[in-house]
Amino acid sequence: MNFSEFIVSLLQVVFIDLILAGDNAIVIGLAARNLPQETQKKAIIYGTGGAVLIRIAATVVVLWLLQIPWLLLVGGVLLIWIAYKLLADQGDEHTEVKAGVSLWTAVKTIVIADAAMGLDNVIAVAGAAEQHIILVILGLLISVPIIVWGSTLFIKLINRFPWIIFLGAAVLGYTASNMITEERMLEPFFTAHPVVRILFIVFVIAGVLFVGYRKQKSAKQSQQHSYS
To answer: What is the pTM of this model?
Structure first.
């Protein structure tokens, strides 16, 4: 991997981190909302620090697992589902997240909630990093401060510019289809037929965007009918 490829992959990892971290940012805010302001900062820093360490460890495990035959294909298919859910699940609430009443209760809530919700992020980042753990660590070091201190702004940007979510889903679709074409059991076929590889990637991205858009549209129509 040359320097330009490294930078492109790093930007892809950071972008995926940010796109998939909207829910995690909400969880951080909900878990710490009942604490005094000074304690809130500590809960956010400690909780996010613990969550990052768990996520790095989980991503290392996933990177290792993706070396096993056919698991790159499984990971790619799962990531296609995650890209679809990113579009289909817009507007979900997180009212089940309890606010912590003490510093360590809030920290525990943040770490546990992030671990439970972070599987999609781990799989997506592992695919985008292409077995380079340094990309995973650098991506988290860049994106986590943005998530922690700029989460409110980022969520507002997504709400104001919905196309950001579609761009994120397209990046995930590309990462997923690329993972599948690099599956060692399938790679010889795609290497021998580069046009098929390109068409497959385009088909996956277009399919994710189309099906996700239809789901969004259907959900909005159902909401309008329920209000009327």
So the answer is: 0.70
